Amino acid sequence: MPEDRVDHAKLRHHGDVDARPGMLDFAVNVQGVAPPEWLRQRLAARLSDLGRYPSAEEADAARRAVATRHRRLPDEVLLLAGAAEGFAMLPRLAPRLAAVVHPSFTEPELALREAGVPVARVVLEPPYLLDPVAVPDGADLVVLGNPTNPTSVLHPADAIRALRRPGRTIVVDEAFADAVPGEPESLAADPAPDLLVLRSLTKTWALAGLRCGYFLGAPAILARLAHGRAHWPLGTLQVEAIMATASPAAVAEADRHAETLALGRTAMIERLTRLGVHVHAPADGPFLLLRVADGELLRKHLADQGIAVRRADTFPGLGPDHLRVAVRGADEVDRLVAAIRSAGV
Ligand SMILES: Cc1ncc(COP(=O)(O)O)c(C=O)c1O
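Above: the input record for the complex with pyridoxal-5'-phosphate. Below: its predicted structure, written as tokens.
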């Protein structure tokens, strides 16, 4: 698509803008409203350390913890201020042509376009399964999400590996991978030199406001990504949060949470389907892609009732009748179902 026909405002649209304070929030995919108590306490215990610069030793310890968690080496870990920082670094790889697989999270495309990198959109049709042939041969960078926001499609790890070509780097945005029990299709532990995996602590740990994530990849690529970065890129509390959530106990907690979420998702799919809403399935992420007869109207009706859902027409390949909803507990889903029913869907 020619650069002058790309709507940058649409690419920058995210669920947080759809949810106003006080609304029942199905628009943002963060789990819960705040980090768990133990994590808050751990961060609070470090508040007095804000008076000093974060040390290289602390960052190294966090990198070691992340490396152990993913069965990698510490120099295969680059700590980030959120996955969003990782997307902003991608232009440093100086790709000749970047292919972004859609429908998917739009920040990587925006970051690449804003840096002047030529971008080819690979727009998958329902059921949104990966098709290696659809990726242009000339693409030396391919970016995709797994599980994919907003379709909730979980691509098999081997389907992603099938995109590998000499001279090509593949970036897998696994911001939601820890919401899938056992992380079966994650490439986080794969040491292949052309695979870069991006992880986020935002969603599962309700840490959107702290900005924490990391890249996993070959040291040579990580060095290129980090080149030119400001000194002290992460603060003390960010490093502490990354360290804390990489512990075996935290990983086990995330996995239990993922199991609960999967049960909630199954129940939610059944209830929405019974209402006559089309839910894209199978779904493996902590959100569902819906298709209804008049998405715009339903979204407004729900907003009038104090319920925020994510418009999905800002995702390339989707239209105004697509909406995305986070998987939530039974009480919240009761309210959503009642509100959809009152709209006469
Ligand atoms: C698929 C996906 N990747 C990455 C991000 C950004 O994550 P972070 O908060 O770590 O920057 C989001 C945020 O909505 C997302 O949906």
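Notes for the reader.
The radius of gyration is 20 Å.
DSSP finds twelve helices and 13 strands in the chain.
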